[in-house]
Amino acid sequence: MTSRGTWLLLGIATAAVAGSIATYDTTFGNVLYLVTYVALCTMAWLAVRRTAPGPERRPWVLTAIAQTLWLTGDIIEVVYYYLSSVPPVGVADAFWLAGYPLVAVALTMMARRRAPGRLRSAVLDGLTLTVAAGLASWQFLIMPTLGMGYTAAEVIVPALYPIADVVLLAAVLFIALSPGDRTAPTRLLFGAVVLYLAIDISYNVLPYFLDYSLVSKIGPLIMLGNALIIAACLHPRRAELTRAGHEVNVLHPSRVLFLGLAFLTAPTLTLFQSGLERNAVVALVATALSTGFVLTRFTFAVREQEKAQAQLAYQARHDPLTGLANRAVLTTELERVMPRRSAPVAVLYLDLDGFKQVNDSHGHEAGDLVLATVAQRLSAAVRDTDLVVRLGGDEFVLLCPNLPQAEAVRLAERVLAGVAQPIPFRGEVLDVGASVGIAAYGPDAPAQDGDVLRTADMAMYEAKKQGRGRWVMAGS
């Protein structure tokens, strides 16, 4: 589905939810709700079917199963409504609660694929938030109902919903804060989980202040959260949720804030339970300040470590002299671009002519100046989406996705002209040239990662044989 189609789906779902709220507790409202939700579940399974089998499909399968379980719970609730009466806790809750672990596992799968090998901290953060949420649920949702004649199920089951929502929130936060793109699909998932949490908390808290007949009307909003998840699955950029990011993992300020709030949950709840005595308030303020100082010191320490890791990661992926990407980056990009390309790709293999003479006549300082200058000229000649690589010595490669063969030839001509420009050095002029080999592939042309570079390399040697200072197209 296109991006525009995804937003159209959300618009229709929003209108249906508004209609369900306006006609709540009527046969028309119930039918509208179920018909809309059946359509959404159908689209979720169609999206799963269109996703290629493998690791990227599994999270969406679990999500579709969860949607189906929630729909089943809604159907059971409607049957109860028309055949007898809706129980406070019943079979429908089993289906609704069963969907949460599936979504949690699906989000965890996405997080593992976005940040492979770096999930341990996210699990610990999630457990911390879950414990805090459980404690808050016990204090405000479970304890007040004890001794009021409710059954154990009627006390515990409603409190499980916000706890499950916090687990989902912890998982989706790690997706949102992990390396990689964070566009519409990530925001849709985050919005869905926040909406679930707000609705489930409202169900438990608002009855203390409003008549339940009014509170119950927020129920159809849950379907809007479901629509947000399904829209994320249908969005054309949904692969960002399961694609590993290349950035160094960093500690986002939001994670520190959430951890600080989790640490303060227990003393805050204790204060509310014991009463707002002066000594208790002073103790809470002192605890909050100490927690803030500790987390600030922790953040500074992590930031220093992140800077060191970022520097090491940069050095591992870039040439120290020119600052260009190195062979490791080129290999990774070829593995990413070539197998799944839906557009033409061109690779230009460049070797300098006359570089050895410059080194021999003027020394390595002049040779370093030539390499750095050529690197700047190559970077200026390409587009922002192209990759400029120094393989080593005086060899460079340009990887140009979505560049047709004719455009690749024009790029080679610009490169030859740019490299041939004189380079001033200590009152003298350094002259070098270049030989360029081009390997250009259409969207359907078969090519292996290693073959692409080797093909361009052979074309470059052919250019040298023909007299240097020229380009040669592989296969011509």
Automatic annotation (TrEMBL):
Transmembrane domains' residue ranges: 28-48, 60-82, 94-111, 123-143, 155-176, 188-206, 218-235, 256-274, 280-300
Pfam families referenced in this protein's UniProt entry, alphabetically: GGDEF
Gene3D superfamilies according to UniProt: 3.30.70.270
InterPro entries attached to this UniProt entry: DGC-Regulatory_Protein, GGDEF_dom, Nucleotide_cyclase, Rev_trsase/Diguanyl_cyclase
Keywords: Membrane, Transmembrane, Transmembrane helix
Superkingdom: Bacteria
Domain GGDEF per the UniProt entry, residue ranges: 343-476
NCBIfam families linked: GGDEF
Protein name, UniProt field: GGDEF domain-containing protein
